[in-house]
């Protein structure tokens, strides 16, 4: 009889170990499916504040007056600032196989009219920043709405780094064609 008891105990422990492993794997699977579902169904507006916060942290104000201003791109269409029109851009996009071209026109929204003179003075530097940024992008990165918003955030941040008399509130694409 002692032999029967000894053989039943290892079977019970093996069964309970297998049961614990199965339960653990099931819970892990639920967590993974939940995370994937959350990422797939979360709205783009959930990500926007994170992007704007990183953009705000990257941009260093040039003087004390700019430290008190909000550098986040806003959508306050009732109070649109003065626009600075850049000449159209035609650039090659970054690609492995084929040739992709981007033709776009950009307008910069200024926070005040005093910035106009500085923008005119630094137009070559601003165009260089825009060209370098655009040519570093792939078609896949800029083909979606979210991709264009990220591109706007990046351009605003890079252009604001060189400005002293104010800052760019937002960028507007008035033409955007990829071929």
List the helices and strands and how they pair.
Blueprint lengths: L1 H40 L2 H15 L5 H4 L15 E3 L3 E4 L8 E10 L4 H7 L1 H13 L3 H4 L2 H16 L7 E11 L1
Antiparallel strand pairs: 1-3, 2-3, 3-4
Helix pairs in contact: 2-7, 5-7
3D structure, described in words:
This protein has 179 residues and is α+β, with helices and mostly antiparallel strands. Helices cover 55% and strands 16% of the residues. The chain is built from seven helices and four strands; from the N terminus they run αααβββααααβ. It has helices spanning 2-41, 44-58, 64-67, 115-121, 123-135, 139-142, 145-160; strands at 83-85, 89-92, 101-110, 168-178. Strands 1, 2, 3 and 4 form a four-stranded antiparallel sheet that branches. Strand 2 and strand 3 form a beta hairpin. Helix 2 runs parallel beside helix 7 and helix 5 runs antiparallel to helix 7 (145-160). The chain is elongated.
Pick out the low-confidence regions. Answer: 44-71
| Number of helices, counting only DSSP H or I runs of 4 residues or more | 7
Overall residue-averaged pLDDT value: 80
Structural class: alpha+beta
Sequence of secondary-structure elements? HHHEEEHHHHE
The main sheet comes to:
4 strands, antiparallel
Q: What overall form do the CA principal axes indicate? A: elongated
The beta-strand count equals 4
What is the beta-strand fraction? 15-25%
Give a brief outline of the structure.
The chain has helices spanning 2-41, 44-58, 64-67, 115-121, 123-135, 139-142, 145-160; strands at residues 83-85, 89-92, 101-110, 168-178. By secondary structure, the chain is an alpha+beta fold.
